[in-house]
Amino acid sequence: MGYRVVDTESVEPEPDRPCECRKLTGPAGLEELAVNRFRAEPGEQVPLAYHYHETQEEAFYVLSGTLAVETPDRTYEVDAGGLLAVDPGSPQRAHNPADADEPVELLAIGAPPTSGDAVAYDPAASDDADTDE
């Protein structure tokens, strides 16, 4: 058996991110699950790019504020206390809209944990492909 309490504020934010990102997987000693805590000010996006994962399931649990998640079909708005689940292969870009009144804080949970497997997604290229068929 094993138990660990992690003070998420003591985990240093990752450098070179579009918003504050605290990677909690390592400090928690997790091996089968990735957990990140994000805080995005108005106008900041959460991931580095519009993307999808080939094998990872993701869940975004909003702690405060409202998270906007752009997908090819629509933009979801997830309020505090809400959870958005994303299947593998589903493109998404999470962000805090520029006109938001406050920061958004969330936990991003993914399994299996991945290391750099995000596949960039270009909605314009997808639209072009749809019109060619």
From TrEMBL:
GO terms for molecular function: metal ion binding. Keywords: Metal-binding. It comes from the Archaea. Pfam families: Cupin_2. Residues 14-23 have a biased composition (Basic and acidic residues). Residues 38-109 form the Cupin type-2 domain. Residues 1-23, 110-133 are annotated as: Disordered. This is Cupin domain-containing protein.
